[in-house]
Recover the amino acids of this structure.
């Protein structure tokens, strides 16, 4: 019932909205007849307006029903059929209108054909012209609506796919976060803190901390070139391989060499991974590390002196047979060891200036008395403030404090 009332309401509004246009057409038609000096019965303003209103209101609904029949035909036969329909409709409606007008004006029937011929010719021509223009406009409107529907459908499909991708990326991030240590293991004499911040939903940075005994610990950090899904997949491969090879008896150089063999056989030609692994024995505060092209870790002495650990070889995945050597150093109580990825030093501010290693060195030296967690928080806060939280690359940071 409501649907019927709504349909009738729309029909009434359409009818009423059409009347001003028909009045304007009738006035214009009368003006044309007056300028052309066409005189005769039924050529006055009122009869012309009545003709226009009758013909317009009868022709439009009829053609709305006939137009779909012609539109089924291919071009140009659709137009031929439409014009034929329009012509016979115009003649029929004109004949009916003349008859109604003669009844209204009580004109003798003998004038019917003369009136039909004198007024009907121009009206039929006008109906053909106006109907053709309207049909052309309607076709354009329908084509535009069709394109709009196609565009709307494409947008809806795109939104659906975008939501699916967002869900998949969220799930991928959840999985990737599961590969990172949820709670960092600690050993006596050391304190370890770490933070991971991907530039997008998922990233290629990786760090891990393994506790081998009460006084021995292994710490690694890696950076897959690029970011996104491809980098995340390589990161997962790196994590699985590291966990498989790492043990108390395997030296950092040997472990990095094994990782290089595995990664080299499973990596694309345009990809590589920088990596650093450090094993620390808190019994004598002795650290041994091996680096594969990674950002040099920085050892901050208790005095505030910064010592970059630059020894190392090429990144993983470039030379399958590359050998990596161990490098050793002695740690002292109060020292701080900082491992990081280049997303930290390459973070840029609004002036496109990089945070840089010098700022990191100055920041670490100034906060040497802080605990590992406090120093990590201080560095992270400074970097986030520097780039306003907008990182171009993944950012990972690990701080080790010697007690």
């Amino acid at each position: 019932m409501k649907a019927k009332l709504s349909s009738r309401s729309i029909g009434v509004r359409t009818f009423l909205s059409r009347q001003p246009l028909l009045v304007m057409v009738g006035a214009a038609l009368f003006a044309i007849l007056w300028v052309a000096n066409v005189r005769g019965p039924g050529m006055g303003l009122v009869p012309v307006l009545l003709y226009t209103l009758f013909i317009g209101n009868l022709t439009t609904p009829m053609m709305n029903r006939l137009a779909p029949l012609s539109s089924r035909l291919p071009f140009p036969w659709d137009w031929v059929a439409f014009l034929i329909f329009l012509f016979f409709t115009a003649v029929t409606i004109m004949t009916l209108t003349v008859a109604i007008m003669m009844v209204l004006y009580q004109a003798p029937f003998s004038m019917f054909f003369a009136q039909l011929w004198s007024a009907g010719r121009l009206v039929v021509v006008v109906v053909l012209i106006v109907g053709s223009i309207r049909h052309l406009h309607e076709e354009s409107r329908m084509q535009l609506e069709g394109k709009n529907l196609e565009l709307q459908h494409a947008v809806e499909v795109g939104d659906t796919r975008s939501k699916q991708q967002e869900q998949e990326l969220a799930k991928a991030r959840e999985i990737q976060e599961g590969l990172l240590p949820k709670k960092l293991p600690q050993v006596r004499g050391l304190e370890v803190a770490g933070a991971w911040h991907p530039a997008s939903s998922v990233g290629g940075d990786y760090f891990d901390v393994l506790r081998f005994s009460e006084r021995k610990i292994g710490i690694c950090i890696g950076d897959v070139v690029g970011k996104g899904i491809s980098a995340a997949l390589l990161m997962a491969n790196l994590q699985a391989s590291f966990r498989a090879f790492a043990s108390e008896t395997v030296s950092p150089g040997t472990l990095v060499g094994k990782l290089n063999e595995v990664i080299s056989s499973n990596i694309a030609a345009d990809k590589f991974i920088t990596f650093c692994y450090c094993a620390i024995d808190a019994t004598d505060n002795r650290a041994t590390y091996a680096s594969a092209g990674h950002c040099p870790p920085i050892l901050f002495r208790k005095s505030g002196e910064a010592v970059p650990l630059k020894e190392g070889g090429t990144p993983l995945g470039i030379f399958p047979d590359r050998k990596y050597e161990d490098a050793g150093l002695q740690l002292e109580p109060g020292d701080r060891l900082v491992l990081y990825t280049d997303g930290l030093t390459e973070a840029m501010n609004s002036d496109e200036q990089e945070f840089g290693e010098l700022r990191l060195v100055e920041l670490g030296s100034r906060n040497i008395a802080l605990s590992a967690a406090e120093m990590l928080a201080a560095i992270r806060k400074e970097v986030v403030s520097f780039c306003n939280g907008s990182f171009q690359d993944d950012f990972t940071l690990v701080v080790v404090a010697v007690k």
About this structure: The longest helix spans residues 112-179.
